[in-house]
């Protein structure tokens, strides 16, 4: 459907000026999406999504942009709100929380943290309270009046298994799925502010005691009395605004040295449960251990392993999967778990990144159809993918580059500045861990902290250095291995009409369409074939490894059985016959090939072959 923009503009302006709404816009479908790991027989375990008319969504999107512009200009949305805000990243709040925990440990004081979950925030939002708040902030006029009429006139139908319910109206809640609902929720929550107490955490001269990620609220302070006071503020605000907390999900935790006597904290009349492990905005924390993110690694490694097996199992239904398509599945479905929260969780402990690396190598070997004893570096030199350690540290540096460019009043900037301060003082922090990660790379990088403020140019130079380190490591392994140095060292790739050396790139031979040909070529190039030079390298089944010069060709008994010998040199009669047929076909397509062939074979013989 194509409607000229002018006609759409005329329609929208007519709706707003005449306070009218087309009748077809007032019928919406409600569908339920089951929540993960919940009983699907219980209606409360579904997330409700409203499917609206496309033109209605377009108009509410335009209204939302105008409201957001006004709210930003008048600083209505507090800096503590990280959800549904342009320029804010999901991992901002977990990073701020990590910095607060590390500062509490450095100061040897406890940090009391509460996690408050509002029950069905969008569906249960009190609209009348929202309109009052918008009017208080100066958000009023025909546009808001039209929105009020829209919400008051909207009818809904529930769709289940193709059947539709009767139409009904609802006087409560925001339209989940409507472009304007997230912004409206931020305005609704904008007046939630807990009281300031002396025990509040100070990050770069800014007190931080609350964070919001949409409707997920975190409260933290270093004083137990202040902590209870803030919980009381939370309960009072929820009661005054008609919000209900999901009590079973509201918990608290104590990071750093705990108090000698266990404390009891209440949200209203409900006593909060203390936990050691918790999940905040997708990041798993463990306050009872020095290794704060051990559970995060475990959970995401399990998810990545399951997803890798699912992606590899697709071949049972579609047949042979081309390498590029399998690589695309890896990037889209497996890599997100392997890099989960890489901006916050840095790989300082070998058991953690080794578990992720094992899953990555397993998938790439299956994708290339090579065995588990293949050289690890070829998994990256041939596919164009970075080793997971390098991939994660580049993401962390990208986050650092983003943060240093932010205004100094952003809380995540304050947290990063505090992290640099703690690192310069010799305390544990995100920056301290980043230095350790860079120093522990296979090709180490020494990062000296700047005395002044970190700049985006400094971070970009670090990213370039990390990428160069990855190239040096892969190239060094390829050159040092007898199995790869002859065929893989110094390869050139065509780029913009000229040949350039690329250590890590997706190779053209992996695009061969016939699966058997592609696999055979891959096995030869990566030295993963079944010839004697490779098989007799291994000690297995009580048979010791055989010296290279004794891995004789099983057919002619005249030389070491490597790929060059088997394909180009072996004088065994049946092999010669197939080789002559091959040469005849190649000479027809590439005249003069035989003369070049002599030079190639002579060169390999001089260097001792490969494998």
TrEMBL record:
Reverse transcriptase domain location: 33-284
PANTHER family membership: REVERSE TRANSCRIPTASE DOMAIN-CONTAINING PROTEIN (PTHR47027), THAP-TYPE DOMAIN-CONTAINING PROTEIN (PTHR47027:SF30)
CDD domains: RT_nLTR_like
Protein name: Reverse transcriptase domain-containing protein
Pfam families in UniProt: RVT_1
